[in-house]
Amino acid sequence: MESRAFFSVIISPFWSYSMVFIAALFRLIKTLIYPHSTPTLFHKHRLPPGPKPWPIIGNLPEMLSSKSAPKWIHQLMKNLNTEIACIKLGNVHVIPVSNPTIACEFLRKQDDIFASRPISMASRLLSGNYSTTGLVPYGEQWKKMKKIVVKELLSPAKHRWLHGKRMEEADNLVRYVYMSQNNNEGGLVNVRIATQHYCGNVIRKIIFDKRYFGEGREDGGPGLEEVELVDAVFIMLKHLYAFSVSDYVPFLRALDVDGHKKMLENATRTMNKYHDPIIKQRIQQWKEGTKTETEDLLDVMVSLMDANNKPLLTMQEIKSQITEFMIATVDNPSNAAEWALAEMMKQPKILEKATEELDKVVGKERLVEESDIPKLNYIKACLRESFRLHPIDPFNIPHVAMCDTVVSNYLIPEGSHVLLSRVELGRNPKVWEEPHKFKPERHLRDDGSNVFLTESDLRFITFTAGKRGCPGMVLGTTLSVMLLARLIHGFTWTATTNQPVELLQSEDDPFMAHPLVVVAKPRLPNEAYSLLD
Ligand code: HEM
């Protein structure tokens, strides 16, 4: 009798409707929080450790009250004693990582799942509404552009084809430093200007076959136009993936609360002002048949045809891909060379060893050539050390999870933004002995074999690995090595008495706090520089 009463309660219509309603409510709430969740993963695994999020806004209040989002994230990981964390910004799970084994799980083992990029105000603006390669979420557009970039624009054959243009700029670099001489005392050189503009000149030269947009300068230095353009590139870089609050709180988007949008629009306008007329004219020339010879990468882009003999790239794709190449080329090599030279000046034995290598491989009768690069292992070790210790960005470009998955036994929900920490990977004390010391020897191999700038084990970040790995590896290596090698081989470098070299990082970004301004004196016989006339 009692059991009959019990079952009649259980199955009474009121109770069964209530149970169904409660279950549906739970499911709705969960779907709102985790729109595409995989139930078993959510049962079995926890999110990586992290601060407790507020409803809806997540940990945005803590992030906004910190001076710098990257520093706040890194400090938080230290406080939690973790090498992988989960921070909620609005509805987005942000997953910072500072351990190479975990980093390899994301970018090598589960590369297919993490091959997308976030949607953000800055990436949309800079990529021309996602018409490029690097800033574009995974999909057909990315596949199309990556194929073109790898096979048509940055292929080994194109790299060889563009050798002459790169060498012209390597000579211009030496000319610019050489022309700073007053008398036998040497000349004062702002190394940051020399390195940033060398990179800007090379990419401009190989794309547009042009180094100056305006009159230029006698000494080979940047004109006003080039200064304006490179400044615009660094504004773009600073505000791309810069934790803009409106990316996490959609209803704030129209307000541009942190002013990032305005700054990016101005920078884009500057770049377009110089690039657009050249691109438009070139497209016209090819259309009219007044240009038929392929002389630079812009010609290659304009003349690529699809199966129906129609242009493969739209004007927007050409414009935006060129902007992306500019952003991708200028920052890493210039920053690595500036920091490397400063570190080497602080440890003269290292500078001496690098100079000895250069004299042995190149001699003193000529300047460094690209064909010397394979033999310059110590120079490459110095550059690796600079990339490890002084990365230009605190984090790698974000990768986005395309479905729920488990990494390092933690749940990583679909849509998570994975941020490999360039700073903390390179300085992880479990991986690197004396992590804060500039010690190029750690990158030399016992058997004396070739040193590369690539680091596929992700113990620090240069070009990363996998689907979204950098397609500019060869060009990036060439630029970095030629830059540092030519500066060190061609000149002796000393600090001025009133401005000693200080290895101090800027509060706001990964640059040296003060540009490296030091005295350069030619160290080769005059004949070695004669080709520069
Ligand atoms: C030393 C120089 C360079 C370094 C250290 C570097 C580093 C990187 C890194 C870390 C990424 C992101 C990889 C990832 O998401 O995991 C990347 C992507 C990319 N880089 Fe580079 N890069 C360099 C030079 C260049 C150059 C010269 C170009 C082209 C002119 C270039 C074009 C690209 C492109 C298009 C992507 C996006 C790839 C994709 O999303 O599929 N990079 N680079």
UniProtKB/TrEMBL annotation:
The chain crosses the membrane at residues 6-26. Pfam families: p450. Keywords: Endoplasmic reticulum, Heme, Iron, Membrane, Metal-binding, Microsome, Monooxygenase, Oxidoreductase, Signal-anchor, Transmembrane, Transmembrane helix. It is found in: Microsome membrane. It catalyses: L-isoleucine + reduced [NADPH--hemoprotein reductase] + O2 = N-hydroxy-L-isoleucine + oxidized [NADPH--hemoprotein reductase] + H2O + 2 H(+); N-hydroxy-L-isoleucine + reduced [NADPH--hemoprotein reductase] + O2 = N,N-dihydroxy-L-isoleucine + oxidized [NADPH--hemoprotein reductase] + H2O + H(+); L-isoleucine + 2 reduced [NADPH--hemoprotein reductase] + 2 O2 = (1E,2S)-2-methylbutanal oxime + 2 oxidized [NADPH--hemoprotein reductase] + CO2 + 3 H2O + 2 H(+); L-valine + reduced [NADPH--hemoprotein reductase] + O2 = N-hydroxy-L-valine + oxidized [NADPH--hemoprotein reductase] + H2O + 2 H(+). Its cofactor is heme. It is a single-pass type II membrane protein. Heme binds at C470. Involved in the biosynthesis of the cyanogenic glucosides linamarin and lotaustralin and of the nitirle glucosides rhodiocyanoside A and D. Can use L-isoleucine > L-valine as substrate, but not L-leucine, L-phenylalanine or L-tyrosine. PANTHER family: CYTOCHROME P450 98A9, OS09G0441700 PROTEIN. Belongs to the cytochrome P450 family. This is Cytochrome P450. The lineage of its organism: Eukaryota, Viridiplantae, Streptophyta, Embryophyta, Tracheophyta.
